[in-house]
Design brief:
7-stranded mixed sheet; Rossmann fold; 535 residues; 24 helices; 10% strand; Hemocyanin, N-terminal domain
């Protein structure tokens, strides 16, 4: 290590703060620059958590954690590792939504990489400015559809930063191998364009061929500068998200978390719901409210999973019904987007409650970004036709959920099996404890990325997403199922990610996407690789 004195204390990757020993203080020119007492990491954790818990708001906690990452990287990740259940809602949803909305106002220290539309023709040259050359995992957004909050432009950088923190904390990806990227192509958010503290390109959002050319140059530049990197697309608007994924999924090592990660974690919850309800997955009928990329991504993976269970494609599609802003997605709807067309059914256009009575779904899935659309009539109708109705209110952040956990339990007389995209507290109802499952993509993408990283996969395919869902569902204990919880506790997420990584790597080998077997050599490499934040 070449850092000394103040330079060492300002380097977050190497700084230990008050934990530098007397010998280290002498060796690195730190004597006199720190208080006398040498702290253990455990004492630093206690101090940091005490500071976090005295903050009066979640956004202040977010700012504190961001500043800690700028000072002491290992302590930051150790906090997440040791207190993931308490801190994940701070570093990611729901608090990250507010952090993105206020990004220009709470900005302290730059992090990640910004590629602007004005950088066209020189993206590879710009990317080469990144100080670490061995990047293996990139999370990138253009900020157009941040959670359920809409177009936040360059403020959306909070999403890649948060996702990559979870890669490190939840799966042991090494922090020097990750890179958050913002593709700043402008914004159509008038409030941001008129905000003097907005940090992005002050122009209307670029679209069409100019936009797709920018994406093409970016993907080529990544391959040139970081040839081994997995690219995760995050929070792109539906038309762009679908077209970008279709264009690059068979050409590049990439995936879209909103489409594929959401689909995999939802599928895992649906697998687990079979244990909670007694109705086999292959016997279920599914009703989707919303037909965006997340909803149809789930639907597509559900169809493939039903086919794997022995159904024909037509039989599998007949189990799914979609409702969008125009009503039931049927053959009479005009201008259906390509990703929605396969789900069009020969069905009447009925109101939501009536279509529930008509189709008798076992599962109701919301991916609308519209709070409150699962009304008491909707939930009670689901409960009339199901002993244990499965209700997935997946929209993020919490304020955008289609219903709350308490509403789902109360309106179903405590019989609902509920999962959401953002966290809800346990609910006590008629003497029983109901634990809402959080279908957080953090259960899937860290393990997926780890499996790709250690397994050396060349591409990400649907088989890998299905086995990831199967592995996650198998991690749910019988005790959790007894409380109608469809996902394991967050404090088990590191072990869950390792389990998923092995399943993903095996699927990659089975599909000839890597030559790396999941054998003793793989196990050794995996165990040697895993990052654990310690001094």
């Amino acid at each position: 290590m070449n850092y000394r004195g103040k330079d060492l204390l300002r380097n977050p990757r190497h700084n230990k703060g008050s934990a530098f020993t007397a010998e280290e203080r002498e060796k690195y020119g730190l004597r006199g620059l720190l208080p006398h007492r040498v702290s253990s990491m455990e004492e630093q954790i206690e101090r940091a958590m005490e500071n976090i818990r005295r903050k009066s708001s979640d956004i202040e906690k977010y700012i504190f954690l961001s500043s800690l990452l700028d000072r002491n990287e290992r302590l930051y990740y150790r906090l997440l590792f040791d207190h993931i259940d308490e801190l994940m809602p701070i570093v990611y949803t729901p608090t990250v939504g507010q952090a993105c909305q206020e990004f220009g106002h709470i900005f302290r220290q730059t992090r990640g990489f910004y590629l602007n539309i004005s950088d066209r023709g020189e993206i590879a040259k710009s990317l080469a400015n990144w100080h670490v050359k061995g990047v293996r995992l990139i999370v990138v957004t253009d900020g157009e559809r941040i959670l359920g909050l809409g177009d936040l432009g360059a403020n959306g950088m909070g999403i890649p930063i948060g996702k990559l923190s979870l890669y490190v904390a939840c799966a042991g990806i090494r922090p020097e191998e990750v890179l958050p990227i913002m593709l700043d192509v402008g914004t159509n958010n008038i409030d941001l364009l008129s905000d003097e503290l907005y940090l992005g390109e002050n122009c209307r959002r670029v679209h069409g061929p100019e936009y797709m050319d920018f994406i093409e140059e970016f993907m080529q530049a990544v391959h040139q500068v970081f040839p081994d990197a997995l690219v995760q697309f995050e929070d792109f608007a539906t038309p762009n998200a679908v077209s970008i994924l279709e264009k690059y999924r068979d050409r590049c090592l990439c995936f879209n978390d909103d489409i594929q990660g959401t689909a995999s974690v939802a599928l895992a919850g649906l697998y687990a719901s079979a244990r909670a309800t007694g109705v086999a997955f292959e016997e279920k009928r599914f009703l989707f409210l919303g037909s965006g990329s997340a909803a149809t991504g789930i639907g597509d993976l559900v169809v493939k999973s039903l086919i794997k269970k022995g159904l024909s494609r037509s039989e599998a599609l007949s189990r799914l019904t979609f409702i969008n802003r125009e009503g039931v997605v049927n053959l009479e709807q005009n201008n259906l987007q390509p990703h929605v067309k396969p789900f069009a059914r020969d069905l009447p256009n009925l109101p939501l409650v009536e279509i529930i009575k008509h189709q008798k779904p076992h599962v109701l899935i919301g991916a609308t970004g519209t709070p409150g659309v699962f009304t008491e009539d909707v939930i009670s109708t689901m409960a009339e036709i199901n002993e244990c109705p499965v209700i997935f209110a997946l929209s993020n952040p919490t304020s955008r959920a289609e219903c709350t956990a308490e509403e789902a339990y109360r309106w179903s007389d405590g019989r609902a099996v509920f999962a959401s995209g953002s966290p809800f507290h346990a609910v006590h109802f008629k003497g029983k404890i109901r634990v809402p499952g959080q279908g957080n993509n953090a259960y899937i993408f860290p393990g997926l990325g780890l499996g790709v990283r250690i397994g050396g996969a060349k591409r990400v395919n649907d088989h890998m997403l299905i086995v990831a869902a199967e592995a996650l569902a198998q991690c749910v204990s019988d005790e959790a199922i007894s409380h109608s919880c469809l996902y394991p506790p967050l404090d088990e997420i590191r072990d869950v990610s390792v389990t998923i990584a092995k399943a993903v790597a095996q699927a990659a080998f089975d599909d000839c996407l890597t030559e790396q077997r999941v054998d003793d050599k793989f196990e050794r490499e995996l165990n040697e690789y895993l990052y654990f934040p310690d001094y």
